[in-house]
């Protein structure tokens, strides 16, 4: 499944909604995300993936037509190459922020109380058979 | 890619005299009420005055320092305009000094901004110096600060590399008068820092080196420091350095589930930090052992091959040390909490531990159910064998 794509985010949503570990870790989480994949290498323009995460489930997920199409409580963004490493579990999502490989816009204090959920999200993404162009 | 962040360190007998050599105009000493009443700040004040500084003492820091005390200290800092802020004491005072320093430097921020992803760019108005008076917290060498908020006592676990002190001054004069119980509690905290960081997902060669040396020193000297009457000065000094090394270890690799549970339990039942994290350390080892077997094995040169070959032997080694220094191994031993109170608070304990940053890099990611099972094990003393 090509990343980033609507097909990929659909698969991500489906896997999140069947992941009991994520549901447990995020059972009180309320907040939507934009995952912004910045142009880098083979990705010539930025791609924004939107996810509405609520109480351990994903209520909505879609690839936006442009990064400005929608706003969200949180934006987690980084260059395409770093997203590739993140999904391949070569970068820890929290260390990624602390080393500047990813940036987060939104309430960091709240995020830091849900780091287990963040890791489960990455574990879920890593389980998707993903093709990375380039 | 990762970092190793450390302050410049002055250590050994007479280290405090270094302060006289730093050009200083105005210095603010942040300490707790006990140290203020006892006049423990006076040797620090004396050295700062030798440097030409006028000195203001903010001696209002309470145990588990509260966000309202940050505001009080900040008000004084803004009026006094120091070029040097000295944190003097245990973890509470040094954490308070970090928070005051950051918000004095950046009046445009709130305490909730003290997170690793904000560009703080501190050090424009003042330098931060940390002088520990106990040997355990490691706050003198870390860039984290724990501040309590609200009436419920929830702990804000704040961190930013810019919160690291420019200087840590490790003078064994200060911990020399620690009573045995405080020596045990703080030493247990330092051992928990070391072992949790070595088993962390973020452990690295630099943090391991500091952690291993600290583990070696603590096993070697902590019983002598608790039982010695008087305690030999070299024992105090070794443990003082070990605590700072343990701080460098976990400050660059993270704590783990032992501290997550310790923070949760301590904040709900008002139990001293060192006692709670010491209590949970054997359970930390047992829960994480399979996931971090290779990392625990790095302790082999220090503790011996046979000790680190399985979880039970390694946790037994820690429990044996706890027996030597009078540390509690179960919740009923450590507190007067009744079983009914424990059961009533169990969901809150799980929720608080689950939201602790101590889980960020723990070797094994626990479920809520597993957190509850570990807490129950710490109540009964049963091994964590799941």
Describe the structure.
The complex is a heterodimer of chains A (134) and B (386). Chain A has one domain: Nonspecific Lipid-transfer Protein, Chain A, CATH 3.30.1050.10. Chain A has 134 residues and is α+β, with helices and mostly antiparallel strands. The model of chain A has no long low-confidence stretch (mean pLDDT 94). Chain A has helices at 6-16, 20-25, 80-87, 93-98, 108-111, 115-126, and strands spanning 30-38, 47-54, 57-63, 74-79, 103-105. Chain A is built from six helices and five strands. By secondary structure, chain B is an alpha/beta fold. Chain B folds into two domains: 8-175, 3-Layer(aba) Sandwich (Rossmann fold), CATH 3.40.50; 178-380, Dehydroquinate synthase-like - alpha domain (Dehydroquinate synthase-like, alpha domain), CATH 1.20.1090. Chain B has helices at residues 33-38, 42-50, 67-80, 91-105, 180-198, 205-227, 233-251, 257-269, 273-288, 293-297, 300-303, 311-325, 331-334, 339-354, 368-380, and strands at residues 8-11, 26-32, 54-61, 84-89, 127-132, 144-149, 154-159, 167-170. In chain B, helix 8 (257-269) crosses helix 14 (339-354) and helix 9 (273-288) runs antiparallel to helix 12 (311-325). Chain B starts with 7 loop residues before the first strand and ends in a 6-residue tail after the last helix. The mean pLDDT of chain B is 96. The chains are: A alpha+beta (134), B alpha/beta (386). Chain A binds chain B through residues 21, 24-25, 27, 92, 94-95, 97-99, 101, 103-104, 107-109, 112-116, 119-120, and chain B through 1-3, 112, 115-118, 156-157, 201-202, 354-357, 359-361, 365-369.
């Amino acid at each position: 499944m090509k990343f980033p794509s609507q097909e990929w985010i659909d698969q991500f949503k489906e896997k999140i909604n069947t992941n009991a570990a994520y549901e447990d870790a995020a059972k009180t989480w309320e907040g939507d995300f934009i995952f912004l994949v910045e142009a880098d290498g083979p990705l010539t323009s930025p791609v924004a993936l939107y996810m509405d995460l609520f109480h351990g489930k994903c209520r909505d997920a879609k690839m936006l037509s442009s990064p400005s199409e929608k706003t969200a409580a949180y934006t987690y963004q980084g260059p395409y190459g770093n997203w590739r490493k993140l999904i391949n579990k070569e970068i820890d999502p929290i260390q990624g922020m602390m080393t500047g490989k990813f940036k987060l816009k939104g309430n960091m204090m709240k995020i830091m109380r849900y780091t287990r959920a963040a890791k489960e999200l990455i574990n879920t993404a890593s389980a998707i058979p993903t093709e990375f162009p380039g | 890619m990762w970092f190793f962040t450390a302050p410049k360190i002055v250590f050994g007998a007479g280290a405090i005299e270094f302060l006289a050599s730093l050009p200083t105009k105005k210095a603010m000493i942040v300490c707790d009420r006990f140290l203020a009443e006892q006049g423990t700040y006076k040797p620090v004040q004396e050295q700062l005055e030798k440097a030409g500084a006028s000195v203001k003492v903010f001696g209002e820091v309470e145990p588990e320092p509260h966000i309202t005390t940050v505001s009080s200290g900040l008000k004084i800092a803004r009026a006094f305009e120091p070029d040097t802020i000295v944190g003097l004491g245990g973890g509470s005072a040094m954490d308070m000094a970090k928070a005051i320093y950051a918000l004095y430097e950046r009046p445009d921020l709130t305490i909730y901004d003290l997170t690793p992803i904000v560009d703080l760019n501190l050090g424009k108005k003042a330098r931060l110096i940390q002088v520990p008076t106990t040997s355990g917290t490691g706050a003198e060498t870390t860039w984290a600060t724990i501040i309590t908020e609200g009436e419920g006592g929830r702990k804000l676990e704040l961190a930013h590399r810019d919160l690291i002190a420019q200087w840590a001054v490790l003078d064994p004069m200060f911990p020399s008068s620690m009573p045995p119980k405080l020596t045990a509690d703080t030493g247990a905290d330092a051992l928990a820092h070391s072992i949790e960081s070595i088993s962390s997902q973020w452990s690295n060669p630099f943090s391991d080196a500091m952690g291993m040396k600290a583990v070696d020193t603590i096993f070697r000297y902590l019983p002598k420091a608790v039982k010695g009457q008087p305690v030999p000065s070299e024992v105090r000094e070794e443990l003082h350095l070990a605590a700072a090394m343990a701080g460098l270890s976990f400050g660059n690799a993270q704590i783990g589930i032992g501290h997550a549970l310790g923070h949760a339990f301590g904040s709900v039942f008002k139990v001293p930090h060192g006692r709670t994290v010491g209590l949970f350390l054997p359970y930390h080892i047992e829960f994480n052992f399979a996931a971090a077997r290779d990392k625990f094995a790095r302790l082999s040169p220090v503790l011996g091959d046979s000790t680190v070959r399985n979880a039970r032997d390694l946790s037994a080694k820690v429990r044996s040390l706890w027996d030597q220094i009078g540390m509690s191994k179960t919740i009923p031993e450590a507190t007067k909490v009744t079983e009914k109170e424990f059961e009533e608070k169990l969901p809150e304990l799980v929720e608080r531990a689950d939201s602790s940053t101590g889980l960020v890099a723990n070797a094994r990611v626990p479920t809520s159910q597993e957190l509850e099972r570990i807490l129950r094990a710490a109540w009964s003393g049963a091994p964590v064998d799941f």
